[in-house]
């Protein structure tokens, strides 16, 4: 084995180790960030389950403005999300929260916080 090969192997092991570390981190982040798309006057997915402390992001793909507002707006309220924009909320208390769009109250979704 040449020293060049040895160096290459060492580099490979190091990058795997670094990748493994980053992978774990992003897996944790993946659990903590949940994306909901608003399209055709609906939340997709309509019902989500997240870990406590997760940040939920709603992206509005409609031309119309929407909100994501908990039945009790004190729990969370993204405010108006315009086309192409995002609203976020972070929920810490376990339980299931129903939410609506205050502009179009027939739009409904739910978040279960574990
Ligand atoms: Cu709406």
Give me the strand/helix succession: HEEEEEEEE
What fraction strand?
35-45%
Structural class: alpha/beta
Helicity, in percent? 25-40%
CATH class: Mainly Beta
Integer average pLDDT? 83
Instruction: Write the CATH architecture name.
Output: Sandwich
CATH fold label: Immunoglobulin-like
Bound heterogens, unique: copper (II) ion
Overall 3D form: globular
Give the beta-strand count: 8
Order of strands, widest sheet: 2-1-4-6
- Work out the helix count: 1
Unreliable residue runs: 10-30
Largest sheet: 4 strands, mixed
Domains (count): 1
Q: What is the gyration radius calculated from CA atoms?
A: 20 Å
CA distance, first residue to last residue: 52 Å
Please, what is the CATH homologous superfamily?
Answer: Cupredoxins -  blue copper proteins
Topology of this structure?
Blueprint: H1 3-32, E1 33-39, E2 42-44, E3 47-50, E4 54-60, E5 69-70, E6 86-91, E7 95-100, E8 108-113
Parallel strand pairs: 1-4, 3-8
Antiparallel strand pairs: 1-2, 4-6, 5-7, 7-8
Bound molecules: copper (II) ion.
């Amino acid at each position: 084995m040449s020293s060049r090969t040895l160096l290459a192997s060492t580099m490979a092991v190091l990058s795997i180790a670094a990748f493994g570390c980053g992978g774990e981190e992003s897996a944790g982040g993946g659990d903590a960030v949940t994306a909901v798309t608003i399209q055709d006057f609906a939340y997709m997915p309509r019902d989500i389950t997240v870990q406590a402390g997760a940040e939920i992001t709603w992206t509005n793909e409609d031309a119309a403005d929407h909100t994501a507002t908990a039945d009790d707006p004190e729990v969370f309220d993204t405010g108006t999300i315009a086309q192409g924009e995002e609203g976020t909320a972070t929920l810490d208390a376990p339980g299931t929260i129903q939410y609506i769009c205050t502009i179009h109250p027939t739009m409904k979704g739910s978040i279960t916080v574990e």
